[in-house]
Amino acid sequence: MKPIPKSEAPPLLAFGAHPDDIEFGCGGVIAKETRAGRAAHFVICSRGEAASHGTPAQRVIEANRSAALLGARLEFIELDGDAHLEVRTAHALKLAGIIRRVRPGIVLAPSLVENQHPDHPRLGQLVRDACRLARYGGIRELRRAPPHAIEQLFYYAVTPEAEPPGLTPVLIDVSAPEILKVWTVAMEAHATQAASRNYVELQLTRARLRGLRAGVGHAIALFPNDPLVLDSLAQTDRAARRF
Amino acid sequence: MKPIPKSEAPPLLAFGAHPDDIEFGCGGVIAKETRAGRAAHFVICSRGEAASHGTPAQRVIEANRSAALLGARLEFIELDGDAHLEVRTAHALKLAGIIRRVRPGIVLAPSLVENQHPDHPRLGQLVRDACRLARYGGIRELRRAPPHAIEQLFYYAVTPEAEPPGLTPVLIDVSAPEILKVWTVAMEAHATQAASRNYVELQLTRARLRGLRAGVGHAIALFPNDPLVLDSLAQTDRAARRF
Amino acid sequence: MKPIPKSEAPPLLAFGAHPDDIEFGCGGVIAKETRAGRAAHFVICSRGEAASHGTPAQRVIEANRSAALLGARLEFIELDGDAHLEVRTAHALKLAGIIRRVRPGIVLAPSLVENQHPDHPRLGQLVRDACRLARYGGIRELRRAPPHAIEQLFYYAVTPEAEPPGLTPVLIDVSAPEILKVWTVAMEAHATQAASRNYVELQLTRARLRGLRAGVGHAIALFPNDPLVLDSLAQTDRAARRF
Amino acid sequence: MKPIPKSEAPPLLAFGAHPDDIEFGCGGVIAKETRAGRAAHFVICSRGEAASHGTPAQRVIEANRSAALLGARLEFIELDGDAHLEVRTAHALKLAGIIRRVRPGIVLAPSLVENQHPDHPRLGQLVRDACRLARYGGIRELRRAPPHAIEQLFYYAVTPEAEPPGLTPVLIDVSAPEILKVWTVAMEAHATQAASRNYVELQLTRARLRGLRAGVGHAIALFPNDPLVLDSLAQTDRAARRF
Amino acid sequence: MKPIPKSEAPPLLAFGAHPDDIEFGCGGVIAKETRAGRAAHFVICSRGEAASHGTPAQRVIEANRSAALLGARLEFIELDGDAHLEVRTAHALKLAGIIRRVRPGIVLAPSLVENQHPDHPRLGQLVRDACRLARYGGIRELRRAPPHAIEQLFYYAVTPEAEPPGLTPVLIDVSAPEILKVWTVAMEAHATQAASRNYVELQLTRARLRGLRAGVGHAIALFPNDPLVLDSLAQTDRAARRF
Amino acid sequence: MKPIPKSEAPPLLAFGAHPDDIEFGCGGVIAKETRAGRAAHFVICSRGEAASHGTPAQRVIEANRSAALLGARLEFIELDGDAHLEVRTAHALKLAGIIRRVRPGIVLAPSLVENQHPDHPRLGQLVRDACRLARYGGIRELRRAPPHAIEQLFYYAVTPEAEPPGLTPVLIDVSAPEILKVWTVAMEAHATQAASRNYVELQLTRARLRGLRAGVGHAIALFPNDPLVLDSLAQTDRAARRF
User: Fold this and answer.
1) Could you give the ipTM of this predicted complex?
2) pLDDT bracket for residue E198 (50, 70, 90)
3) Which of C125, D51, D134, D194 is the most buried (most CB within 10 A)?
4) CA distance A164 to B227
5) This prediction's pTM
6) B195 at interface of D, judged by CB pairs closer than 8 A
7) A136: exposed, middle or buried (C-beta count within 10 Å: 0-12, 13-18, 19+)?
C-alpha cells in the first residue's frame, strides 16, 4: 500500500457524545493526523448540559478552542441531549447524512462497551449503523448526497473501562513531544471538567502505560470494527510488546 | 512509517510442523512478500513421517520444490518427530537459536488453537516462547549469537478450525493472478497429500470466502500475537467488510 | 426420539428482514425440510425498499418466486420499513401473534451479531423475545390465539460475519444435488440483488467450505438459541471435523 | 438420519482418570445407552491411589461393580498414576491404540477445563489428541490395527466447575425412573468415596437442576468437541429452556 | 475495612421487573441482610399482569406479604407494564430519582443476560444506567434531590440461564436454617406462580448446588458490575471450591 | 465475617518464578498485609540466571533485601532454572509440600495468561495444581505433613499483558503513603533490573491508573481463582468505578 500523500487523503471524521470525549479518548491521534496534513472533522452530539460542571455555553467555547488546537473543524448537532441519547433509526440516518457529506476515509466513534456513560456506547452503535446506511442506495432520507463507503471504523475508549476486551487494538505512537504537548493542551482546554477529577492525568497515565508496554513513550489504542486489509506485511513491522 | 525498501527489510521466518503446513496455511502471503523482494526462510520440524500418505523422502523433495516456487530457503530440523511433538524448553531454545541466527523482522507460526493436529498448537507455543527467549541475554544455551528482538509474530491457521476466535486478524490481499497461481502450484507440489483429500480446494475456497468478504478476489488471514504499533492511520486505510 | 412422520411434524417458521435473507442465509435447509414433507412458512418484514438495487414491487415478485421454489408459503408484514427497524415491544408482540397462529416447532431467525445490517440482529432479538411472549398467558394483545411454546429457535447467518462466535452450531448437510440445485435457483430468483455483488457465489463458497470441513459436499450452519435435548446419543452420530 | 438399530451401533468408549469419574460425570447417559442396546467400554487410567479414602484394591472392586451395573465392560490401564498424569505423546498413542482396537462411534472424556483435578483436563487433552492420532496412517506405534475415525467426541464434566463455558452442550434426558435408579446405585457403588463428601447428592442435584431448566425430570449435559452434523432438523425437535 | 455497624449501613435497594423476581433471584440474601440490621427497599416495576397465572391484585398482595417476611419495604412503579418494558431514558431517569431518594449503598438488579424474560435484562440495563445518572449534577429531571453515588451494583439471576458467564460471582452463604426458612416462605408467598412450575424447587436446588460446590449448605451468587475494592485480603478469606 | 485478628490469621504464601516477580506484581499488597500483622512467606523458583542483567548472586542479595523491606520471609527453591521451567507433576508436588509445611490461608501466584514470560504461567499452573494436591490424603510423596486446604488462590500479573481477561479482579487499595513508599523501595532493591527498563515506573503507573479508576490513589488488582464466599454484603461496600 503506497501511503496516499496526506493532502489527498480523505478526511478523518470523529464523533463525540460530549464536548470533550474525542479529546480525552483519542486527541493525540487527531493531533498526529492533522499535523501530517489530513483534514479532521468533529461532530459533537450534545453540549454537555447534564454534566456536574460547566454550562453549555462554556462547553461550546471550550470545545471550539480545543478543536482549533488539534487542527480540526467542529460541528455540533442535536440528538436527544446529554445523558438522554437513545438508539433511534432517525439518529443513525442523521449521522449517515453527515458521512455522505464529509465523505471520510476513517471514522472514529466511542466504543460499544456498555458499562460506561450510556451516551457513549449508544453513539458508537449509531455511528456503526450510520456507516452502513451511508452505503445503501435506496434510503429516502439520504437522497441528497450519493452513497459513500468509508474505509475503516475505529472505536476509541473514553476511559479504560471502555476498552473492548474482544477486539485486538492497534496502537498509535503519540510520543513526539509536540504531539503530547498539543494533546495535553487540548484536554486542558476543557477547563470546566478538569476542576473535579483528574481526567487529564488519567489519560496521560493510560497512554504512558500503553507506551511503556509498546516500547515507545506514549501510545493510544484504537479498536478496529473490521479486520484490516493489508497489501504487505511491511505495513505491520512493529508490535506492542516490550516486557 | 516509511516502508523500508524491501531488499533491506529483515527476513521473514516461517515455522511449519509438517512439510506442507506453511504452504497450506499462508503460502500466498509468502509468495507476495518474496515477489516484493523480502527474503523468506522456512523451518520445517518433521518430515511428515506419520502421515497416511507419502514417504519422508518424498515429502522432503516436495517441500524443497514448493519452497523454491515460493522463493523461500528451507531448513529441516528434528524435534520429536511427526505427531510426537511435545512442549519442551529444549525445543524452544533450539528455535530461539534459529531466530538469533536468521534475525527476522516478522515470524510466522501455526496458531495456538488446540482442536487441530496436536503438533500445530505445540509448535505455535514453542515459537511464541522462542521469540521471547531469543531476547534474554543470560541464557547459556543461546550464547553463540547475540540476543534478537523480532518485530511481530503472526499466527497462520492451517485449517479454518485453527483460526483463533479471540484475535482480530489482518487480511493480506493475495488476489493478483500471479500470486494466486504460484500459491496454487506450491500447494500442488505436495502431490502425495493431494491424493486423498481436497486440501488445495479447501484453501482456495477459504481464501475466496475471505476475499469476497473483504471486497477483493482472495485474501489470507494472519493473527497478530500482539497489537500492531502504527505511526499513522494512513497504514490502515482499508478494511474487511463488503457485505 | 422417534422422528415424527414429517407430514405430522409441526411447521417450520422462518423470519427474514428483507426479501432475500432467508434464502441467502439458510435456503438449502428450507429446501431439505420441505422436500422431506415439512411445511415451511416465511415472514418477510420489509420489501427491501432501502436497497441499492430493485424496486419493492420487483422484490416482492422475486421473493414469491423464490419461496415457491423452496416449497414455502410467504407472508409480508410491515414493521418500521427496510433499514429502519427498531426493537419495540409492539413488534415483538406482532411476531408473537404470528407464532401463535402458525404454531411452529422450529423457528429460524437472523443471528444477533451486531456487526451486520442493523435490521438483522434487531429482527433476531424481536423473534427471540416473541418466542417467549407467545408462551405467556396474560398478554392482552395476544388473546386471539392460545399460548404456544415452540420447540427450538435456530439463528441463521446471512453473511459469514453474522455467525455468532459463542454458540456451537449444528451443521445441516445440503449436499444432495437436487437440494443444492433448488437452493441455487432460489437465490438466483433474487435477480435484482445478484447484479452488483457475488451473493450467490458467497453463499455457495461458504457452504462448500463448511462441507469440506465436515466431510460432506456442502453444509449450512444453524446456531441453536438453547441447548438441544436429546433422547439418545444415536441422534448425534456424525460430527464436523475432517481435517 | 435413520437411527441405526442399536445392536449394530458402534460401541461407546468412555475414558476416566479415576475409578469413579465416568459414573459421577455421565453415568446416567451410559445407563441409557446400554439399556438401549449399545455396547459400552470403560478405560480407567488409575486406581485412585492418591485419594484421601479407599485403597486401590477397594477402588478396583467398586469400579467393576459399578461398570457391571451400568452394563459396561471395564479395563484399567497405567499412565502416570493417580494425581501424577502428564500430557505425553506416549500416553496419547496408547489411548489411540485402544481406540483402534475398540473402534467406537462415540467417545466420552473428561472436559478440558483447567480449574479442576489436574488429571481430568490432561486426560481430556490426551483423548482428544488420541482421536486424531488414531486416524493417521503412518504412525509407527499404531501399526497393529488399521486407522479408525470416530464419529464424535463428547466431554463430560465431573463437577459443575468443569463445564466448559464456551461450548453449547447437548442435554440427555435421564429422567426415566429405572435410569435414575441404576445411575444412583452405580455412583453409590463407589462407597469409599461417598463417606466424606456428598458426591452423589451433588450429581443428582446438578442433573435435577438441568432437568428443571429443560422441562424434564433430570438431564445430563455433554459438550461436543466439534459441531454436530445433522441430516434433518427433525433430529433437534426439543430444546432446553422451560423458564 | 471495618464493617459499619449495620444500623448505620446505607440501605440496600433491590429492583424487580415482576412481583416475585427479587425473591426468586436473591431472596435469601435479602433475608440475611435485613436480619443483620440493614434496611432493604424493593422497587417492583410491574404487577405481573402478563403472566399466565395470578391477577395483578393477587400479585400485589403476594409481593407485599413476601417483602414483609423478608423485612423489606416495597414500592410499585409503572414503566411500560409487564412484558412490555423498553429501554428508554425516561425510565432510567425515574429509577435514578428513586436512587437519589433512597440513597443506597448496595443496589441489586436482574442480570443483563439477553436470553431470558425480556423485561429482566432491560431492567438491568436501566438500573445500571440509573446508577450513573444519579451521580451527574446537571440533569434537569433529577434536580429535586442531590446527586448520589452508590457503592456497588450487583446483578442477581432469576434463573440459571441468567447467570452472566463473563463475570466472576461472589457467593453469599445462606445456609443458616432461619435464613433458608424465611427465604422459602417468601418464595411460597407467591402462591399464584407456584401452581404451574417448580419455581421454589428450582431455586433451592440451585442454591444447594452452589452450596455443595462451596462447602456450605446453600449459597446464592451475585455478580458485581465493577471490581470490588478491598482494604485487606482478610475480607476474602474463604473461597468457593470444595470438589 | 468477623476479621480474624491478624496475628492469628494464617500466613500468606506467595510464589515467584524470578527474584523480583512478587515485588513487581503485587508488592504493595504484601506490604499492606504484613504491616497489618499477617505473616508472609515468599518462595522464589529461580535465581534469575537467564536474565540480561544481574548475576544470580546479585539477584539473591536483592531479593533478600526486598523481602526484608516487605516484612516477608524468603526461600529459594530449584525447579528447572530460569527460562527453563516445565509443567511437571514432580514440581507441583514439591510446591504442594511447601503448602503443607507453611499452611497458608491465602496463596499468591503469577497469572495463567500465556502471552508473557513462559515461566510465569507455568508456575501459575503448578501452584494451582499444588493447592489441590496438598488436599489429597493418599499422595505418597506428601506423607510427611498432613493435608492442608488453603482458603483462596489469587493470581497477580507481573505485567499488564498478564492480567487475565476472563476473571473479575478484586482491587486492593495501596494508596497509603507508607505502603507506596515501601513498595517502591522494595522494587528499587532489584537494582540490576532497573538499569535497562522502566519497570518501577511501569508498576507505579499501572497502580495509579487502577487507583484513578477506583477513586483511590493507587490500587493493585488480584484475580481470584474461585468465587469469593461472603457472609455479608457489608464486606463488599466499595466498588471500582469512578469515571
Assistant:
1) 0.93
2) confident
3) D134
4) 13
5) 0.95
6) no
7) middle
